[in-house]
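Hey, resending since the last one bounced:
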Amino acid sequence: MSDPTSVELLLVEDNPQDLELTLRALRKANLAARVHVARDGVEAAEFLFCEGPHATRQFSRPPKVVLLDLKLPKLDGLEVIKRVKGDPRTKFIPIVVLTSSREQRDVVESYQLGVNSYIVKPVNSDHFSAAVRELGTYWLLLNQPPKTNA
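The C-alpha cells again:
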C-alpha cells in the first residue's frame, strides 16, 4: 500500500482470494500503485470519512473510485453506499459494486442509493482479472470526475 493521502482506488473486499485476484489484475495492468484495501465496511467508512486510524487523511484527496463488495462484515456495502452518497463531502466519489450477488433487490437498491456501476464477479479467474483490468483502466485513467471543493 502507498501513502494514504494519494490513494486512487479504495478496494473494499473481505474475501482473501478475491482480494488477491483483484490486486494481481491491477498490478498486471500497472494500476495498483495507489490502492488502499479495507476488509470490512467500518474500515471503508473510516477511510472515506477520515476517521479513526485515517483521521489525518484529507477530504480534499478522495480516491478516484471505490470498488466495493456488498457482503461485508461489520457494516454491509449497501450501508457504506448510503453513507458515502448521503454526505456532500463524499457523494461524488464513484462507487463500483463488485460482488457475487445477483440478487435483483441488491442491484436495484445499489442504484437507488447512487452507485455508478454494478458488476457481478465473474466466476472464471481469467474473466475476473479481465473485468478488474477494464474497470481500473476506465475509472482510473479515462473517467473525468467533477471538481469539488470538499
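The first helix runs from residue 16 to 28.

Sorry for the duplicate.
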